[in-house]
Structure formats: structure tokens, C-alpha cells
Protein 1
Amino acid sequence: MQPIIYAVGFGPGDQLYMTTQAVSVLQKVDIIVGYTTYVKLLQEQFPEKQFLSTPMRQEVERCQLAVQVALQGKTVAMVSSGDSGIYGMTGILLEVVAAQGANIQVVAVPGVTAASAAASLLGAPLMHDFAVISLSDLMTPRSLIEKRITCAAVADFVICLYNPKSKKRTDHLAQATDLIAQYRKPETPVGIVRHAGRAEQAVWLSTLEKLKEEPVDMFCVILIGNSQTYVKDGKMITPRGYQLESEVML
Amino acid sequence: MQPIIYAVGFGPGDQLYMTTQAVSVLQKVDIIVGYTTYVKLLQEQFPEKQFLSTPMRQEVERCQLAVQVALQGKTVAMVSSGDSGIYGMTGILLEVVAAQGANIQVVAVPGVTAASAAASLLGAPLMHDFAVISLSDLMTPRSLIEKRITCAAVADFVICLYNPKSKKRTDHLAQATDLIAQYRKPETPVGIVRHAGRAEQAVWLSTLEKLKEEPVDMFCVILIGNSQTYVKDGKMITPRGYQLESEVML
């Protein structure tokens, strides 16, 4: 039988937000492999399981570890928070398996991505077309990130920012805010969710002009409204009704 | 006690892809309200439940129905396929509750959106920044849809198209393809998923130059790769490694 590695997106962290497929896969596999922090989250919920972990930025090594274990005849789950298919481990896992020519089947188990989890806590900010952009420049040139932000702003997409800040990257969010502010009003609603769906969860509303001052870190997801987004009764809502075309043309 | 309406995203349809929270909410509520087609999907899985439905395009009426039932003291789940917060019912439900001044709490239960479900079947096309665009012009001017498509193409986003075609809208996808083809190579990989996660599921790969000829309908989600996306061993993969900047500038 061909060995299988499941690339499992486990959502925010709690079983409440996992799909029943994710739960059953995590229950049935021999070994769960993941980033150290996520492994800790899952160990509490699956205490009888065997876990293997590697630190952040050792994604390739993590995949090689999973391949090695799978080739020994164990069934393996490689876990990502959110959806394994959105900035998660599915891609690099497929690449490592292909590069090694390993006879392994990769089965992707999708999950609730951070944008969905954050949106559900803020109201309904993603009711219309949106762009998802990571501000991390570890793997992407800053010029490309800036271009994507500008294009998303021009096109009046709701903008969802992943990895908005880290200890080393403190100015990217300010720069992104300045770019967006060229095309959107200062009072544009902004929703910030930190540790969505976890014990430390924090959810708050801000505006584009105040975004730079917000206490944002790497555990936050930021949703910036389009020209129609409004706040009512504490909920951030992007209506689906007819929208006026933005003044700014390409 | 304040009445509650749960806005539940149930994913592709099968309980396998529902979160455990979605399953437990659907099990505990008195009444499930939804679009006729989705109600049929859920009736098979929750046969003991009471259901109410309205046809497509009667979203406001559906919300009014849910509000009416909730005010009678019943707990209600308003269902959407995918994620209730992405082109789903959460937004219009919040708007109807606010417009009526109804003393009702809306609790959003996020789910696996169609982009995630489709991506998991195609490989790993959403490993980098992406834009989600609906081609339906029922509620959005075509000029705005065209602008978003062009901006997404210029910015080298992976592009995910929802509602790519309907019986009345047969030319929108061809037009979108022409716009994208101005900025992306003819051989750009395209993934098409019809009825993701359902019995009728179909998954196939194509290219930008062949997209117009594909048998696409309203049940499809289309993922168009960025300049780095490739196909290997039948999997569509967008790498996360350093990307070359696109030649096209704003």
C-alpha cells in the first residue's frame, strides 16, 4: 500500500473549529508532525498521540521528517493552523515529496482559514471580493508585496493582511497603510483579530487612519474594508448590494 | 434570553467537511433555514430536523423568515454553503436584523470556503497571495468586476473565480480570461473544480489559453495560477519561494 501523508489544516486550534475529517484523521494517524507551537496546541487535545516537531523556518526539514516517517510505514499528519492550503504546508510538502521522488500520496484536508475565522468574529467584512496578502518578506520581495497592496487598494478589494508584523518587521504595516490610504478614506473600517478562536483571543475595530497606532503583532489578522464597508452595532459589514465604482482608474 | 440566529457555513455539503461546531449547532437548533438546494443537501444528513427554505435571490425574505421564527422563541440556523462569511448569508442577515431593530444575536459559525475546498483537490495553488472575485453581476457593476480582474492580474495574484458562469451569463468568463491573458502567459495553469466535496465532484486542470473552451457552469470554482504556478505529477502548485517581480508595472 502506498504510504499517505495527510496535510491537515486544523483551523484556529480548538476542535470546535476543526472539520470532522480533520479530527478523524488526527485521531487515526500514527504520528502528527508540525511546527512546535502548533504541536503544543494539539497535544492538549490529542494527548495519546505521538508528535514530532521542528521550529519555525524549518519547513523543508519538517517535510523531510514526515516523508522519512511515512516511508517507514507509519501514517502521518502534517499539520498547519488555518487551512493547510493557504500559506500552509501542503505546497512545500508536495514539493519535497516530488523532489525526493518518494512514492507517497499527499492528501490535503482543508480547514477554516484565518480570514474566515477573523471575519466571523468581526461581523461580515468578506461579503464581497477580497484579496489576501501576507506582509512577510521572508520569501517575497517587498516590491512585489507593495505592488499587490496598491493594486488591491485601487481595485477596491476588501484586503486581508496575514503576518502583518514580526519582531524584525515593524514598519511593513505602516507602509502598507500609507499605500492603501492613497485610495481609501481615513475612516475606512478596519477589523483586527488576534489569536482568533484561542483562549487569548482579542477582537477590535479601528480605522485606516488609526491602524498604525494599533498594538498589532504576528498573531493578528487584519481586515481592511472596501469603500462600502461600514460599522453598525459593533459589527463590520461589507454589503453585497450595488457598489459605486471607485474614482481611481488604472 | 436574547434569541440567537446562527449563521452557519457548512462547507461543501458533507459532514466530513463541516466543523464540529457547525455539526453541533445544526443538531441543537429548532429550525434550519436556507436556500432550497442546500436544504435538500442537509435534510439527508439531519433527517430529524425541521427545515424552512426560500429559492435563490430571495435572500432578504429568507432572513426575514429566520428573524420571524427566532422572535417566536425558536433557535435558528441560517445556512450557507462554504463559509457563511464569504459571499454567504452572514452579512445580509446582520443587515436585516439591524433594519428591523430586532433584539436578536447573530452568531457566525465559519466554514471551509469553496476556494479552500477546491485548492485541496487541485494540489496547492493558494500558497501565495490571492484574490477572490465573483463574476456574478447581479449585484455588482460589470465595470467594477473587470477592474478587479485587471488589477488582480497586474499584481500577479493567484485568482479565484466564484460564480464563473450561469445560464444568463455565458460571456463573463471569456471576457475575464481575455483580461487576464494580457498579463499572464497562455500556458498559465488553471484548476477547475465542479461540485467540490459532493457526489458529482469533478476536478481538472487546464490552461489560461484553453479556459474559454472548458465546460464551466455555476457549480464550478476556477483557480488561475500566478506567474510561478506550475503543474507536476497532476498537482497544481504555487511555490512560496522567492518570486521574480512581474514585468508589468502599475
Protein 2
Amino acid sequence: MKIILDAMGGDYAPLSPLEGAARAVKELGVSIVLCGDEAKIRQAAEEKQIPLDGITILPAEDVITMEDQPTAIMKEKKNCSMSVGLQALSSGEGEAFVSAGNSGALLVGATMITRRIKGIKRAAMAPLLPTGNGHAILMDGGANLECRPEMLEQFGIMGSVYMDKVMQLPMPRVAIINNGAEECKGRELEQEAYKLLDADDLNFIGNIEARDIPSGDADVLVTDGFTGNIVLKLYEGLGKFFGSKLKEMFSGAGKIGAVFMRDKITDFKDSFDYKKVGGAVLLGIQKPVIKAHGSSDGEAFFHAIRQAKKCADGKVCETISESLAARKAAQSAAADES
Amino acid sequence: MKIILDAMGGDYAPLSPLEGAARAVKELGVSIVLCGDEAKIRQAAEEKQIPLDGITILPAEDVITMEDQPTAIMKEKKNCSMSVGLQALSSGEGEAFVSAGNSGALLVGATMITRRIKGIKRAAMAPLLPTGNGHAILMDGGANLECRPEMLEQFGIMGSVYMDKVMQLPMPRVAIINNGAEECKGRELEQEAYKLLDADDLNFIGNIEARDIPSGDADVLVTDGFTGNIVLKLYEGLGKFFGSKLKEMFSGAGKIGAVFMRDKITDFKDSFDYKKVGGAVLLGIQKPVIKAHGSSDGEAFFHAIRQAKKCADGKVCETISESLAARKAAQSAAADES
């Protein structure tokens, strides 16, 4: 399997993408197409003695930065590494794409170049939140600030396919993030989405209050991108906050306490570490596209590549497409009958 | 000073309100008007030998439950303890009101019976979130699911007055919870509210991302009630989640570790304990109204009563009213000039 990787995205490019790529070749048996500045990539490989076996370089002149407007990927930066990678994905030069670059540009590029799955209204940026019993996928984590009920329904469908095919969780529990558990709760958006999801064949368990997210009461968390962004960022902020509180706690623990606690704190931090999970998957695009964290190191890139491979192996995009087609056929049949 | 207390609200009524009242009389030098079922109150006082010095009982026949519709307070439950208490507040029989009962009913009752401050569009339910440097007030924590920009502006004004007068924090930093720091970020709601708050004489510091809330980067967090509810509940849920993780960590710590850690864990839990903060204040009502947590014990009621006293002492409602009047006068003067 070939995974395409944006060598120029993220805070430590191209070194970290390169490290992740080399490890993925060795441990996952994939080959990597690395898009970006060939001279810089070769220089980093030489300096750090990273072997380029199993890695081909796809040259790209330009780089889209965090300061660029998302739409620049279709205009003045159309020859950037991210765009070149997405074009390669579309033309079948690889089965999935990973980038740690500008999120907005990745969303625009994936939608305009690789394109959405037929019938999908909007692609969602779907991060995985750590919970008491594993992970929950957040649909949408920030791609679409304002949503219509049908978009939330599709988020539920896509998130279910992901949890089933990639996380090996059959019949994942789907819930709408809401201000109360009862069906009547929320704004018109949540109330209408409730009806749509309830009539669907998903394992829809109703509304979930935000306080029940961390314990893992649902596997697919459906919400608009504004709310999703708040949930994601607060998770991140509180995780960091608690981590620093923990450190404070043990600053007075003495040597024995400190040694004992070091491992515990590491375990705790690991459970909130995005590096081990991979990235946020862009669901609704025709091929798997993974957004790695901007500050990804080699390990984080390795996990993002592994996640991309799992998406391709699990045929996530194909399953979403088939699921939508089957729904449409069922609706037509029902309409014909009536 | 007289504080009116709903004796029938909360999971442990009337015992917990009674305990809180007795302690408040002793430690704060206030007198308490306790509304509710006189027989039950006297029975609880006798059984637990709680002195009724400084406490007068205002009899109320009925109780509004958590299952009742909020509007029931104006109709079939108009003789409930919450309604009787709010009427007493309006007629000047006390300077502030505390209840741990049905939040929706308290909002409806306070708005319809005690009434809003002139010029205030909507009252907000304002809880205090623990942060790295104290507390931030969340405006709105769930009273108004959908808001207009002018409502968010007023939330900023009211929250500023509260932090100044009750928390002794002059010129508190006001920020809009948003999906990015830049002025252009967010939905139309956040963009328009940004302009209004920016033109105001508050200490407006712009947008805050949810990840920066826990470290205490702002003192007044402005948002719609839907988003506010998500923030509040996720704070609560993650606090609980980390608390249980901490416990797990030390289950293998041995005796010495366990003893050492017990105090640390208690400190940590205390910093997230609503019981020590008081309740959520209903800002925008003509007199101070405090919503105590439903599961409040005697200590939590004591702190809610103390918070009510601070609101009355600090003349929070009067200051909000004056602030709005001054703004209106300035606007009229500006209109006359042009």
C-alpha cells in the first residue's frame, strides 16, 4: 500500500514527516510518497541518516503556511506540497493522504481536488477524544461552524462507519451532544437531527450531555463544528491543566514519591496524547485524508500514517459511499411504493 | 441582612437548606427567611437539633419538582416554596434569594415575579468555573440557548459587574468563547458581538479559544447558553473523570503513598468543588437570585447564602442597572449631537 505524505506541513517539517515515513516503511510495510521540496527532504535525510528505502519523492515547489487563506490552495499556492499530494491522491498514486499543514486549506483542497463522496453534503474534521473506555469520534470537530440537521445525520453515519471499520467497534453508539438527555432538548438543529437519526438504522442512543462524554457513554459524538471545536479545545485545555496540576502535586513528594509518580504521570499524559491516536480524519472525502496535529513529531506522523492505512484497509470511504447509496435506493423504493 | 431560602429545593431538602441556614446565621450574621412546609422544617430541625435562632419560616403549601415544566411556577404550582420565596423577594422581605430547585422554573419565576432589570434583554444563569488563577464567570451557562449579539454584549457588562463587585476583581478581562482568536472568527453571532463589545468601555480582550479557559486567560466568558452549557458540563465531566483517574493512580501506591496522596487528591477535588464556590447567579434580575446545585449539602447551601449576601452587599443588581442607564444616556446624548 502507498500512503502520500505532505513533507512540508507541521512545525518540524520536513524532518518529522520523514522520520514518520521511514518508521512506517519499516514497521507497517507500506511505501510512502513524500511531497515537497526535494532538496530539503534529501538534506534532512542525509543529516539525520534516515534511509529513503520505500520512499519516493514527489517534488512540489511551494508550501502553504498557517497564515495563508484556506482558498490559497486553489489559487496562488496551487503548486504547494499539500495540493500536489491531493492531486496525486485523486489520480491514484496512493491510497490515502496525510498532512500536518493548514487545516482550512486541507479541507478546501480535499473538497475541491479529491472531492466529496457522492451524496455527502459536507466533509467533517473528525478527531478522536480519549474516554474512560477508549475513544469517541467527534463529528464535526470544527470544519462546518453552522450545520443543518441532514448534515448531522450524515455525520452520524460516517462516524459509525469509521468506528466500525477502523476502531473495530461494531454498532457504535451514536449520540447528539446536547444540553439535556430528553428528546425535546436543544435548539431546532438538535431536535430535527434527533428525528432523522432516530429513524435511521444506526445504533442511535439519543442525546448526550457534555458531562457524560469523558466516561465514554457514546462512541460517535454528533454536533455542529462550532460546538465540536469548543469540546475539542476544552478537552485539550483541561487535559493540559490537569497535567500541570499533577506535576505541582508531586513537586513536594520527595525522591521516592517522585520516582513512583513519574510513571503514573506518564501513563496519565499518554492517555491524553494525540501522538498515539493519529490525527483527525476528514470524513466525507472520496479517499482517506488525515490531518495530523501541527506540532507532530516523528512518532505522531507514524501514528497518523498507520491511521491512514487502517482507513484504506477498512475501506472506510467505500463503505460510506455504499451506505449512502443503499439509503437512497431504500428511500426511492419507499417513495415508489407510496 | 435577610436572605430568603427555598427550604424545599434540592436533593436533601429540607435538611440541607436548614443546615446551611443555621450556619449562615451563626457565621455570617444574617437572618434567614425559610420558605416551605413548616411541619417538615420543624421536624427536621428537631430531629437533628438544629437551632432556629435567626430563622423565620414562611409557609408554602406546594413544591415544584425537577419533573415539573418551568412554567408550572406561574400556573398550577404558583404556591410552591420557590414562588413564595420570589414573591417575598419582590416585596422586600429579604435582600436576596437562594434555591436548589428546578433551574428552568427559577429562571421563569425570577423573570416573571421578581422581573428583569430595566433594559436587560435576557437574564443569564452564570456559574463560576475554576481556573488556574481563581474563577471565571460563564455568561451564559444555559439559560438562553440561542442569543442575539446585543444579549452577548449585556452578558459581558453584567459579568464584569459581578467579578468587580463580588469577586473583588476590578476591570475583569472579558472575552468571547470562539473557535479562534482572530476578530474574523466564529459565526455571525460572535462576529457581531465582537464589534459591540469592542466599542464598549469594558476590558474586552477579544476572543478566547476553549483551550485557554482553564488557565484563566479571561475572567468573564461570554457565549450563548447552548455553548455555555456544553462548556460547563464538560468541565464538570472532565473534573470527575480526572478525579477518578487520580484515584486509580494511587490504588497501587501502598500505605505511605496513599496517605501522602490523600491530602493532595482532596486539594485537587476541592479546587473543582462547586460546594465551596456557591451556586450560579441569575444575572439580569432586579434582586440577587442564586441557583444552588441540586445535590447541595449544608456546606454548599452555606456558601450559596454567602454568595447571595456578597451580591447584595456589593450592590450587583443596582450597579448593573446604573451601568445600563448611563450607557443609554450616553447613546441618547450622542444621537442628539449628531
